[in-house]
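With this grant's support, we have paired protein sequences with backbone structure tokens. One protein thus recorded is set out beneath this paragraph:

_____
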Amino acid sequence: MNVREVLLVRFGEVHLKGLNRPYFLRKLVDNIKFAVKPLGGRVWMSDARIYVSDASDMALAMDKVCRVFGVYSVSVAMELEKDYEAIAQAVVDIAKPLSGTFKIDARRSDKRFQPDSMVMGRELGGKVLDANPALRVDVHKPEHRISVEIRDMAYVYSGEKIAVGGMPLGTGGRAALLLSGGIDSPVAGYQIMRRGVTIRGIHFFSFPYTSERAKQKVIDLAAILGAYGGGMPVDVVPFTKIQMEIHEKCPDEFGTLIMRRFMMRIAEKLARRRCCLALVTGENLGQVASQTLEAIAVTDRVVEMPVFRPLIGLDKLEITQMATRIGTYETSILPYEDCCTVFTPRHPATKPRLEDIEKAEALLDCDALIDEAVENTEEVKYWHS
């Protein structure tokens, strides 16, 4: 019996696409090929399934494929010829170590294959019971589901690993993520990446008030996010001069809001240079003084580009749980200062008026400060393999 191990990859939301579905599928296949390339895996698509075979480490290949956006789930399957006796033996082999309840799911894309799905399920279930008396049938809520798919070849497997889901990366355009180094912004970036958007980071660096270790922490977070999509470059913006000017010339209670408005202006300029169509932030309504509805409204007045805030209605616990799941939490909580903690007002304004903020900003040479920061921005590239 000629049998080999393959990964059977299912895609989810792409199924909902219409005439443009082939574009999304091609992108998904390309992204999977990129993910398993270091392992020498072969990737192909056939009959509404994507398959991966011949990787040097199939377990690692499965982990990598499960991190590809657009993949719904992955199963380790036995691929064999469409020989009924060989299929039955493969099913029995899979069932041998199991105990409890089970069900046989048999499906035929090749309708020429006999017996049909109903008969196959019944007969294969009988063979499993004969070989393993520790099992019993439960067709409604089985503990184990053994699947048989008859396509161009036969595939036998049990169980699946749920993947990240979403849409294939690269199908949703580009956006720039304001990456602070805290818990929220990496999660916001991840959520937008799940919708197929390629992101790059923008980090505001206030040396010497923030250390090189704080900068490296942000680069490390970008590397973690980049592992989901090949890489994530980061633009590191020198922000010390702007913060000093705000601190020295503007009313203390407006300091954080004016700083945020500078960040948005600079981020928009950099985003346009990098052909990005939107900004992404980790803001969460009411979490801090600069994230009240009034404060966000004042902040948004300085940019024309859409600003996505995927965490806007989540609880902090939900965000923390997501950060833990995607692997950014432990890095985010490293105790290094970021620019948002420098010159923090003792009593920040929570219900600012736009005219008051604009009056305070008039004390600064905003255009010159922004242009200087943009021109001195450092691009750090990190490409994940």
Notes: The first strand starts at residue 3 and ends at 11.
